[in-house]
Design brief:
This protein has 190 residues and is mostly helical. It folds into two domains: 3-58, no CATH class; 70-184. Helices cover 72% and strands 0% of the residues.
Length: 190
Amino acid sequence: MDENWIEQVRLTLNRKSSEELRQIWEENDRTAWTDDAFEAIQRILEERGESIEPQALPAPLEVAQAAKSQERPGCVTAYALLTAIGIVLYALFSIIVAIAVGVDEAGMIEIGTMLVLTGLIIAVAVGLWRLQNWARIAVIVLQSFSLILSIILMLNGAFGIPSLIGLAIGGYTIYWFATNRGYFIKPQAG
């Protein structure tokens, strides 16, 4: 433990009342508070002459994160719905245009390919809705391909504000799904 850091944390936490600090100590939520924070809380309470009970052993991080998986975050709900609606509308529009222009053998292959891709993307959206870890990984992979394609297009002259916004959104989407794995871990019985 870094003593200087603990001292900085202690100075910050010292503003809280003993009651607040005791509550944090008793809850022992290691996903919300670091070990250094608990060390600082213990020191503060001891300095104030407060008696503290020994903490229960914290739950392993993955079990604590699995508790978060009980509820689907709103951004995952929105992402799943917008993805499913967007791909269905795009597929319908593509099919209508293909039929209006006239469908030859190559057009039928394109329509078939579009329907297969639509089915796969809807499966990912349903997987996200159900908080399936494979769907989270699929989003990361698909968004990574999209980012690479966007960068290639930008290098070939398609550079502008919309391109930068798309890169930022895609990058943040990858970051969010990569760092919020806990929502997609199913609690294990036991």
